[in-house]
Specification:
heterotrimer, A alpha/beta (about 300), B alpha/beta (about 375), C alpha/beta (about 575), B: about 375 residues, alpha/beta, Rossmann fold, 2 domains, seven-stranded mixed sheet, about 40% helix, globular, C: FAD/NAD(P)-binding domain, five-stranded parallel sheet, 20 helices, about 30% helix
Amino acid sequence: MRFTVPEKELMFPGHVACPGCGGALAMRLALKALGEKTMVVIPACCWTIIDGPFPMHSLHVPVYHTAFETAAIAASGIKAGLDIQGKKDITVMAWAGDGGTLDIGIQALSGAAERNDDIIYTCYDNEAYMNTGIQRSSATPKGAWTTTTPEKTPKLEPKKNIAEIMIAHRIPYVATATLSYPEDLINKFKKAKSIKGTKFIHVLAPCPTGWKMAPDLMIKVCRLAVETKIFPIYECENGINYTINIMPKNIIPVSEYLKVQGRFSHLREKDLLEIQKTAEQEWELLLAKSRWQLAINK
Amino acid sequence: MNKVITGNHAVSYGAQLARSQVIAAYPITPQTQVVELLSEFCASGKLNAKFIKVESEHSAMAACLAASAAGARAFTATSAHGLALMHEMLHWAAGARLPVVLANINRAMGPGWSVWTDQNDSLSQRDLGWIQLYCESNQEVLDTTIQAFKIAEKVLLPVMIILDAFVLSHTSEPVDIPEQELVDKFLPPYDLKTKLDLANPKSYGALTNPDHYYEMRYKIAKAQSESLKVIKEVDLDFYEHFGRKYGIVETYRCDDAKVILVTSGTITGTARTIINEMRERGRKVGLLKQKLFRPTPFEELRSILYKAQKIAVIDRNISFGHSGIFAQEIKSALYGLAGAPPIFDYIIGIGGRDVTPDDIREIIDNTFKTEAPQEPIIWRGVRL
Amino acid sequence: MKWLEKYKISPPVLEKESDYPDWAISLVPTLLNRTGTWRIFRPIYENKVPPCNNECPTNEKIQGYFDYVKQGKLLDAYKLILEDNPFPSITGRVCYHPCEGVCNRKDYDESLAIHCVERYIGDWGIKHVPFAKPREKRKETVAIIGSGPAGMAAAYYLTLDGFNVTIFERKTKLGGMLRYGIPAYRLPKKILDSEFKKLTALGVKFKVNCAIGKDITLDSLRKSYDYIIIGHGAHKNRPLGIPNENAAGVFSGLEFLFQINSGKKPKIRKKVAIIGGGNTAIDAARSSLRLGSIPTILYRRTRTEMPAVPDEVDAAEKEGIKIEFLVAPVKVKATKKGKVTGIELIKMKLGKPDASGRRRPVPVEKSNFVLKFNNIISAIGEQVDLSMLSKDIEKSEWGVKADNIGRTNIPNVFAVGDCVTGPKTVVEAFGAGKRAALKILGETDKIKFKAEMRNAGEASMNQRPVKFTDLNLDYFEHANKIPGPEIQVAARKKNCKEVHTGYNKAMFKQETERCFSCGVCNKCDNCFVLCPDLSVLKDAGDYEFDYDYCKGCGVCARECPRYAITMLEESKVEVE
């Protein structure tokens, strides 16, 4: 098995991501897929810092930094500005963290999706407000430790399912991806680029710092998330046609994924059972959706 | 072409004639007609623009800034709570040196909900680096809207045009709507030198540490103070094209005035008739209309107001814990000048309470009668 | 090319107002920021020892030739094998493939069928690749005693580098055990002859029908040749040591096979007993089956202790040959005229291990019984004939005394193969012959051994063979071994057709794809694709770390499927 990815780099090293940062690799791969005619919008998130302080930049495409909640609308604004100048072949991508997407940014995202603005919105999800020091967001999974959900009171609420929320908007394309499947991730960005309208890609981007694990396990933990069915890799077109892209082959319990990360080290047996059950439930639901054929479409 | 139009529609025509390219707006009373007419213009093709029907004012400004950075002329309009919601992005606009134009309909802030006019909403944003221009008539609104784009794009600062809710926004007046060709001669196409450019990929607005941030802020401040010259030039330039000029302040019968009344917005119109009436009766009273609020026209304020014996400032606003805002600014402009006249700060018309001719008369009379102001704030018309 | 070689970056000057952009618009890439200073560990590309290479008695670069095959470079694969083993068509057929026993794939699904792949390449090579000629011309002369595998391998390497070699063979045809021991259904004579052509092409001279000690003495050879290599193998049959063992109808295993492999038909009847558990016994049993007999193997221990190659035992059983375990011969039953009628056996049980590590068999008292047989073939092991050895050459318990490079106590006399070790395998003989040749050539740096043999105590990390737990299996799909095709058992009766027909092209390709390439980078690009810091540079297919930026996260090392990247502590690295 050999990964084939486009050769050209549109990112420079010397950026200030932590060693083993999933978000850094995600951007590198996404830009390989999208190519040079791309502009990126970055709201407040880790990438605000990773890009490098003034006077440096880390990407070889224009980057427009914007306020926290405005990633989606800033991307829409740029796209409108380019379109009206006749520059219609430039891809505009909003690149936001989970906080800037699921919490403070969800209004603008929903607005853009409802208008079907022609942008790619990528949420690189490290499952907490990592940039500000590992505080919980609505993307933090149930049971996880963060600085605002300490071990005595870990997060009790389940992770908000942003992919399904975007699917409910019936936008042309929603997909999930992660770094252990780089070709799948690249294909999805390429596909998004070719579609007009709002495209949403949810990338699971582990944060070794915040997930409390050794940085070299970053890719492994992505793979485990998928194989334990905690983070299914799938896509949905027009909010109706589901395709599961990666079918986990072996039955691996969620504990395999959870035990690698210090942020779950306090979990007890009954917590593991609950997480297992939820993962299986969600998987079953997804599987059913992927198999469903609408009578009207036959 | 002469047409009887409302203040809101004057804004719409201004934005259309200026060939706005991206409009992002969210409806709020009393701004709605601005965007409704612009929508019609876009639909009919009279205006070739992208109209983004955003889901909040915060997004409206974010969209305009992004579009402006991308190389398109951007415009929006809002009022009161919408402007307040935009606050974060209004900071961003000036910090990003983006020449967006915003028309604000001065409306009182809730709670309780009020749709009627006062100036608190726009004046709350006075520190951010926006140029603020207050208008008296629908003609002035249209003309200032067109000028605003030219000013903004020359100095690279955002510009706010301000008009009173209902009194101007919903009031029809005859307006001379200029021809498109003439406006095109006056206002060249948008050309931001530092726009997002694939050939020159850069990061815009990144983390800036204390080593560099200070210098950038200094540059904003400098741009603000240097814009005074540009605003005056653009006004004259406009006059050359269209035959109308307004100045950054307008003096009306101030030459030998003992008392100068300072007004802004539609109160100016009412005040003019009272000045004339009082002059008829031999009262030496004059009127200074302050059109440009930011940057503060220090020189003009000093040279004009210094000559009077007393200054009566009409503030349709209040800075809680201090005083009326125009008055504060004028006091600080005259500070240190030996022999500067006393300044009376009259608060009136908050929340859209009508400012009548009698109110103006009483204010002027009171100023003449009183040696020096007894209190920092003189509340007019509070029914308690 | 390193990033800072490709891009020339200098820090921007921000002193005057005009130096500053109007707002925070960047001026220079983050290349200015050398994040390499963050490192605590640094990755290095460091190939490790594949277990197959390590285990092979000739240290073939098995991983290497598999990699060539995956790249479609069949010629390079063949040449790579020949660097260590000149005769892959032989080993691909008869080697006991210890490599497969340590192949890490066995812990994942099934070990690679390395010998099937090697055979395919060997056969292809014989067909398509011209035989090598000597690389230079030298004056030295070498006499090699025995044309078996040990002598063959030594002759190949010596003549390749220009030495003048003469092989003395006492039999009429060449090959030793390869021809006269191993039957044609395992190693066709045609293949053996083709392999010998390699030696002829290199100018090896052969003197057949020439027995040392009889037709010519070792001492006279020592006078006329610069070097002697003794490789006459172990060809003395070990006697059973029981009454009537010389009755008519009793054969020695070696003699039986010699006749068959010379094209003769030994006189045997229906019921044949073969005593022994080694390859000779199995060969004899399967050969007698093909002559129409019903053979039974009698072995004194159990299947686990049988020294024969397990594949061979399986083959014998598949062909329907019965094996009686835990029985030992007591007496050959014969008529008064001395003709075999059967054999008296005693049952055995396993006691404590003996010197070989195998549990020693102990007779069960009063358990004697008799089985009827027409013929008995005795194949309980071979011994070395030392009668021709010069007096001054030291002997050991097994045969000629020599170290694992083949050195005897006499500086220019070497001894290799079974004549040193007692009966062992073809591949071990190839390895021994090669090492002696390299020693004679003075190329001692090319002499390789198993990693564990090199250092007393634990081999250092980059020298010990790669373990299964070193690998990252996430990148490999499960796939079972492609079995080597065989002709049906029914088709094997009464002929010596080669049982294994060999892979076809599709099977060959499919099986080679299963190789993990343990420890050796095969340019899969994982490190390049997965580096978040763009610090893995690819230049014309080669990889390099850019230490100006590498933060030492270790993702590359972890995601290398084959353990070809090592993380070193930065504090222990000497900086240039």
